[in-house]
Backbone:
């Protein structure tokens, strides 16, 4: 049953059909490309098995607490990111809406390039059946498939990317336009179990390859000395942070569609541990496969290149698939998994955008997905289906994630806990509706530990980007594609905040009321 609440929209707020639909959708958002192509390499480079210690500590001390914060804001203030932050700020803090729009613009930027990677994976899914990449997988990916040119902005389209990219956008907009329960939830209920089954088959197959155990030894043999290295701990916090879909509006938006009396903290724990379990399973699958590849080449794992990111997925993995018995099926499972993991994450990123436009301009889900989605689809196609698409994607991703999301997280933790002093109210709200209770330790983790770690991450990253540049790309290009991305997010946030609301977002009463929460605390 949907509910009426104030008049930010003339229609009732949509809801998930129940707890399971919400949990599957939240896991679908969290389990994305990063779980498959980022975690295994990061773990390998940062102490192997020993990395699991800082990783789990980061999960418990930063990942889950910020996840609780996002859930509490969305569930209490029942709106998209801008709506929720505006209501949290109250009469004196209406400007806090701009933090919500900052998160929305991060999602806009991520969506336009993330769709391109899903399109690549879809193409490679079809390439798997006849191993079309041949013997030179790097040459095929960069020269034949993407036709990569020098850094810049090309108007030369690549049909092999353009067509699947358009199809990805059509499919995403159809799902978004169908609403929360009939669209986003239904897609996750179908794709997430399929993804898990496909990936488990892939992992089991990988474990029986020659050299698989060498791969697992390389991944899990602990290097205890690494625990004394601060950069290993920062790597753990950043992996948890980027993997869980926290601090850029997704979980605020998703939790705003929960029923008022829904348990909030227990599902958050399920989502967090499901996400990390998938990462560890992905690590096993990827490194068992890399062990086979090293065995075939007669080299050690440490001599292999391309162990993370785009290189792992589109250059190293195709090369492995070509050498493997029954490789075509293995390739189809791998790239099919990438498509499903990417698609459910892309949906969640775009739902943040759609929800914000629905709230601000009184649009329906269908109107928002069409009006906003078509504009984003056009931008996505113009920027990422051309010969400069790969380099633009790499650069924009670097700045959107390592600068944009980290700034959003620092701002939200400091403003919510210290400036607006909402920690006790949000803790009381979580405790009023949930089985797993939080207290002062949660507020300290969110208000002190998280901002300190994140600020350190941000400063380190800015120093490296300013002094060393990125990937040897020209400075003018980094200024436009990199720092320009951050500027677009900032200007977009300020502009959207300045526009008038179709319905008054402040005509709203949080439930339980502040007085009721005080009574509950006694």
Residues:
């Amino acid at each position: 049953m949907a509910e009426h609440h104030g008049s930010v929209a003339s229609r009732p707020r949509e809801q998930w059909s129940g707890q399971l639909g919400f949990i599957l959708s939240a896991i679908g958002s969290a389990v994305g490309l990063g779980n498959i192509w980022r975690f295994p390499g990061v773990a390998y480079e940062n102490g192997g098995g020993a990395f699991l210690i800082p990783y789990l500590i980061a999960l418990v001390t930063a990942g889950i607490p910020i996840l609780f914060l996002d859930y509490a804001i969305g569930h209490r203030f029942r709106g998209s990111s801008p709506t929720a932050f505006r209501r949290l700020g109250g009469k004196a803090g209406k400007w806090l809406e701009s933090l919500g729009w900052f998160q929305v613009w991060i999602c806009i930027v991520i969506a336009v390039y993330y769709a391109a990677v899903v399109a690549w994976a879809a193409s490679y899914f079809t390439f798997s059946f006849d191993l079309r990449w041949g013997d030179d997988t790097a040459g095929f990916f960069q020269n034949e498939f993407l036709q990569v040119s020098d850094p810049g902005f090309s108007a030369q389209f690549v049909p092999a990317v353009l067509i699947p990219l358009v199809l990805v956008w059509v499919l995403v907009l159809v799902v978004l336009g169908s609403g929360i329960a009939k669209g986003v939830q239904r897609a996750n209920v179908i794709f997430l179990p399929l993804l898990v089954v496909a990936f488990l088959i892939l992992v089991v197959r990988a474990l029986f390859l020659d050299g698989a155990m060498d791969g697992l030894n390389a991944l899990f043999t602990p290097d205890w000395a690494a625990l004394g290295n601060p950069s290993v701990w920062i790597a753990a916090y950043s992996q948890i942070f980027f993997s869980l879909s926290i601090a850029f509006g997704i979980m605020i938006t998703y939790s705003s569609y929960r029923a008022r009396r829904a348990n909030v903290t227990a599902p958050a724990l399920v989502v967090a541990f499901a996400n990390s379990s998938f990462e560890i399973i992905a690590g096993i699958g990827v490194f068992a496969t890399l062990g086979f590849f090293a065995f075939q080449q007669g080299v050690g794992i440490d001599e292999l290149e391309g162990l993370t990111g785009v290189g792992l997925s589109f250059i190293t993995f195709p090369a492995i698939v070509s050498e493997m018995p029954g490789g075509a099926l293995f390739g189809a499972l791998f790239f099919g998994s990438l498509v499903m993991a990417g698609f459910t994450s892309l949906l969640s990123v775009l739902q943040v955008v759609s929800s914000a436009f629905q709230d601000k301009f009184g649009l329906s889900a269908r109107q928002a997905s069409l009006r906003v989605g078509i504009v984003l689809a056009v931008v996505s196609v113009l920027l990422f289906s051309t010969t400069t698409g790969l380099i633009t994607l790499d650069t924009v991703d670097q700045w959107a994630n390592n600068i944009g999301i980290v700034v959003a997280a620092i701002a939200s933790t400091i403003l919510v806990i210290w400036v607006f002093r909402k920690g006790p109210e949000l803790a009381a709200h979580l405790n009023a509706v949930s089985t797993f209770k939080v207290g002062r330790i949660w507020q300290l983790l969110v208000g002190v530990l998280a901002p300190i770690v994140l600020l350190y991450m941000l400063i380190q990253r800015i120093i490296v980007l300013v002094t060393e540049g990125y990937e040897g790309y020209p400075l003018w290009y980094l200024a436009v594609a990199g720092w320009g991305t951050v500027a677009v997010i900032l200007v977009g946030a300020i502009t959207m905040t300045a526009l008038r609301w179709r319905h008054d977002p402040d005509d709203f009463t949080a439930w339980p009321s502040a007085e009721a929460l005080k009574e509950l605390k006694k």
Q: What stands out?
A: Residues 369 and 375 are 10 Å apart (CA to CA). Confidence is low (pLDDT under 50) at residues 1-10.
